[in-house]
Amino acid sequence: QQPVQSPQAVILREGEDAVINCSSSKALYSVHWYRQKHGEAPVFLMILLKGGEQKGHEKISASFNEKKQQSSLYLTASQLSYSGTYFCGTVGTATGGSYIPTFGRGTSLIVHP
Amino acid sequence: ETGVTQTPRHLVMGMTNKKSLKCEQHLGHNAMYWYKQSAKKPLELMFVYNFKEQTENNSVPSRFSPECPNSSHLFLHLHTLQPEDSALYLCASSQEGNYNEQFFGPGTRLTVL
User: Fold this and answer.
1) Residue B27: what pLDDT?
2) Among all residues of chain A, which has the CA nearest to that of B33?
3) Which residues of chain A have a CB within 8 Å of the CB of B97?
4) If we measure between CA atoms, which residue out of A76, A60, A68, A97 comes closest to residue A17?
5) In chain B, fewer beta carbons within 10 Å around the N or the C end?
6) Which residues, numbered 24 to 63 in chain A, qualify as contacts with chain B under a Cβ-Cβ cut-off of 8 Å?
7) Is the omega angle on the peptide bond into residue A7 within 30 degrees of 0, that is, cis?
């Protein structure tokens, strides 16, 4: 079952912050975040594992709340280069050994000058 | 450049044609994947190969036939496709394990007339 991402789209000005949420109806082992720019391949950002850890990547960080089965991606002081579609992928704890994520529909992020 | 290449980048074919998509990874990974990406839909996992063995087939119609001759190459053979099969087909690779960070190729934009 695919995770639900919100919002579907975000429009920002350079320097503003954004939060993208990813929710699952199942218990999660890990959450994966990818960014895909228009016409390009999805690029891995980070993986968060069960245990509620928070990770950072430049000015992009994420948290994972396993009790709520949610992850949030935080983009601070956004840059033009942050524009793209952000996908979360989730791996459930009851997947019979498969660690391949199921992806959400994506959140489109547009950063204007 | 992610280390995963795909050819061709664009393909237009008729419903009666037979064509093949090719993927090659230069990362030494042992798992390879085919995904379908349609507009406004999540990434759909089609096939997974681990060490050249197919481990997942997500109810994909038989008009799509994968082939993995070695751990660096993956093909998707196409025959008698339907217009609804038009999409971006993405190949990815990873080092199989608990974390499963995937590296995606640029994709093949397929149009079925």
Assistant:
1) 93
2) A100
3) 99
4) A76
5) N
6) 30, 32, 34, 40-44, 47, 49
7) yes
